[in-house]
Specification:
Strand content: 15-25%
CATH class of the domain at 70-162: Alpha Beta
Protein name: PASTA domain-containing protein
Keywords: Membrane, Transmembrane, Transmembrane helix
Transmembrane segments: 48-70
Order of helices and strands: HHEEHEEEE
Distance between the termini: 112 Å
Radius of gyration: 38 Å
Largest sheet: 3 strands, mixed
Structural class: alpha/beta
Strand order of the largest sheet: 2-1-5
CATH topology of the domain at 70-162: Trypsin Inhibitor V, Chain A
Length: 164
């Protein structure tokens, strides 16, 4: 018995016609063609692009955070009197970005300076107290080497503090 043969009794002519129409429709339509290789390729390319975008955003956010933490405390302090030379108390940290990062320690206490050196992975050299007009006692007035020289991870920086 095929789908086109008349049905045994029990089916109304309407039901027979409906079944025949459904069979004709099912056998006449083309099945959809899927380009599975293309779909997989697009999915992998989109996934790779998305992962690369997230990685770039995380690197940018992490790098920005690291740079802000190195130079952040220097910008939060009040500068010393105008007689202190800021260039002598500023070091240029190289090796993190294309351009070196200026970190100004003018007027900072020794503990803050040590923290900045640790963040920048620099070694603290000799600490000397000097008499300098217009500075607050026990604050940084000069670093060696200072800007325009560039220091990198592992370098030693000497500190001169105000004697008061």
């Amino acid at each position: 018995m095929s789908s086109y043969d008349p049905r045994p009794s029990g089916c109304t002519p309407f039901e027979e016609e409906l079944i025949n129409a459904m069979n004709d429709f099912a056998h006449s339509t083309d099945s959809p063609a899927f380009d599975t290789a293309g779909m997989v390729h697009r999915t992998r390319r989109r996934r790779a692009t998305l992962i690369a975008g997230f990685a770039a955003a995380l690197i940018a956010a992490g790098g920005g955070t690291a740079l802000a933490s190195i130079s952040g405390s220097a910008s939060q302090t009040t500068p010393a009197a105008t007689t202190v030379d800021h260039a002598k108390a500023t070091f240029l940290l190289g090796g993190l970005t294309k351009e070196p990062i200026a970190v100004d320690l003018t007027g900072q206490d020794l503990a803050t300076a040590k923290g900045q050196f640790e963040k920048a992975q620099l070694k603290l050299g000799t600490i000397v107290k000097v008499v300098s007009p217009g500075c607050k006692s026990a604050t940084v007035v000069e670093l060696t080497p200072h800007s325009p020289k560039i220091v990198v991870n592992g370098d030693t920086v000497d500190v001169k503090l105000c004697a008061g």
